[in-house]
Amino acid sequence: MLYFGPYSSSRAVRETLRYVNSLFPIRKCSHNVFKSRVRPCLYHQIGKCLAPCCDMVDEAAYKELINEIILVLKGKNAELSKVLKKKMTDASAALKYEKAAKFRDRIYAIEKTVESQKISTLKFVDRDVFGYFGKGNSIQIQAMFIRNGNLEDVASYRFSTINDTLSNVFCSFLKQFYIRTRFIPDEILMPVESEDKEVLEELLSEKKGHKIRVICPKRGEKHKLLEMATKNAENAFKIREDSSDGIESALASLKKKLGLANIPKRMECFDISNIGGKQAVGSMTAFENGVPVKSKYKRYKIRSVSQSDDYAMMYEVLTRRYTRAFKEDDFPDLTVIDGGKGQLGIARRVFDELGVDRVDVIALAKGRKKAAERDGPDQKLDERIFVCDNEGSIVLDQDSCELKLLVNIRDEAHRFAIAYHKKLRKEQYYKSPLDKIVGIGQVKKKNLFKYFGDLRNIREASLDDLAKVKSITAKDAKNIQSSLKN
After folding, report:
1. Which residues pair with 50 in a beta bridge?
2. What digits encode the pLDDT tens for the residues 142-189?
3. Paired residues of 336 in beta bridges
4. Does the pLDDT value for residue 426 go beyond 70?
5. 61: which residues sit within 8 A by CB, 6+ positions away?
6. Is there a contact between 247 and 266 (Cβ–Cβ < 8 Å)?
7. DSSP assigned state of 437
8. What is the helix (H) or strand (E) element at residue 131, kind and residue range?
9. Statement: the pTM of the whole predicted model exceeds 0.85
């Protein structure tokens, strides 16, 4: 068993796996799928897998491919390029030009990746480089993780600097950074001198098992790396600051254009999903300052409505949500309903009945073509916004930030509702008469279907045949036969 890493983040792991899978035609399926597959999958058809599951590649060739991947994961890209260049030359000499072209493409991809990862360094050592930038009450810290001369990953962190200096916040961050189980490099480059530098070096050296250097370079190659990290921190700070300013401006503009009582810093959106009234569900998504807060999402299984009546379903969901809001004193600034005037009327009715007077409410609906236009060419339809005490609808600029905020939360509510609806449908679909039989759990049910294929064959099977199934006892066989034939 070979282990590679540790990686600086889960994102770095995913990126490495994506790179390996795109470069090498290895299998992507799980062990269970691999063992049961009888014909090549789509990955084989598009040249992304050699189909070892169906013996379409010999063991030696596949092992050779795995050895190439090991070289990549060990960072020996230059060594791998030499191996592939020789294979390309040999294939070309043997007039196997298509095979040679595949090696050529793989070499190009490797060299392109290496080129984008390389950083000009004096030594190919492992380094963590930190830079920071701050203004007002915030600081942005940028970390660059360099492994064997390659920039493997970056990470960004933001903190408050209230009642403290930028340098103190940074030094405090650095002390905490390596407390958790993470890879400790040979060198740590930091942009400010710290009184605790020697203590930090001693702790990290003891944890690593050999001498670790924590340095603050003032010139040369290492100082240039610090400047790069600091510039990245400044750029990240400004991007986030500009985004925050843009959101605040859009929210204030939304209040003005829709005539709201509150600036909608916190919004909740509701949607209903069902097919003919079956498996009906409602969803609620929550955004704060234009950003989804998934911990506050809620989903509702409709209890009081059995027929297809979206208005009644919306009434139930809103009543349940805002009855609870009073108990928890938990109200948004704005409630968005997916729908038109009818849905807005239902929301207004619920608010009046419950006495909700501190929350704005609007409905957001897509525009519709007239009947005579439906057979014509497709066109982008305007989103229409319905507000209380307004007979018509409001149409905002379709490319405006204000409308995009509303559309994002509406689309997220729609996605969340459909996902829950599909989950319930799937659970219902996979229900089986076997579920009601005492002693038959998921494992035994799976074994029965695997052995007999379908429920009809299980129902017609004899006691002896049932007892042949793995984990099925004689008592289970009797229970199955009596239950299914009644």
Report:
1. none
2. 988 887 777 777 888 888 777 777 778 887 888 788 876 578 888 999
3. 269, 362
4. no
5. 50
6. no
7. S
8. strand 127-135
9. no
Do the beta carbons of residue 343 and residue 310 sit within 8 Å?
yes
Q: Which amino acid is at 457?
A: N
Structure tokens of 97?
Answer: 């030009």
Three-class SS of residue 183? Answer: coil
d(CA 105, CA 5): 27
Q: What is the largest CA-CA distance in the chain?
A: 86
pLDDT digits (tens, 9 = 90+) for 356-369: 998 999 999 876 55
- Which residues are within 8 A (CB) of 94 and not within 5 positions of it... i.e. 6 or more apart? none
Residues 367-374, mean pLDDT to the nearest whole number: 51
pLDDT value at residue 170: 82
> Residue 354 and residue 376: Cα distance in Å, rounded?
45
pLDDT tens-digit map of 216-274: 888 888 888 898 888 888 888 877 776 666 788 889 999 999 999 999 999 999 999 87
Rounded CA gap, 74 and 190, in Å? 27
Torsion angle of alpha carbons 341, 344, 345, 346, nearest 10°? 130
| CA–CA gap between residue 97 and residue 102 (Å, rounded) | 9
